[in-house]
Amino acid sequence: MKEREKARELILTHGTNSPFEIAAQKNIVVLYEDLGKNIWGYFTCTNRIPCIHINNRLNYMRALFTGAHELAHGILHPSINTPFLRRNTLFSVDKLERQANRFAIHLLIGLKEPEAGETRQQFLFRCGIPELFHDFY
Length: 137
Ligand SMILES: [Zn+2]
Hints:
Layout: H1 3-14, H2 19-25, E1 29-33, E2 39-46, E3 49-55, H3 60-76, E4 85-86, H4 95-109, H5 120-126
Parallel strand pairs: 1-3
Antiparallel strand pairs: 2-3, 2-4
Helix pairs in contact: 1-4, 2-3, 3-4
The structure holds zinc ion.
Zinc ion binds at residues 69, 73, 82, 85, 97, 100.
């Protein structure tokens, strides 16, 4: 199933497109930690407890995107402890990372549609997606 349909299905199931509300409903722990300058977040599943780790140095928009990206790993790749989402993820050719980024974008877009005259960039900003990831749309 494509990432877009998966994201929409998740939104309809949980009644929200907030990665943090969905994580709470699915009993996925969200932890904020100082992960240094280069790491945005990562996903782990230890003793069957899924956990999203987010760098507490990120601004809100980046933390939200990281939450959506790591939630994507939890949904799409639940048994894999994912590699870190690094600053240079934009250039990553890793299949799991690309899937997680596409899923995150469609989750944050939710059921919103571009308005007349709105550019792709304006639309994606309105949905809370950092520019670094616009090419995954
Ligand atoms: Zn990732």
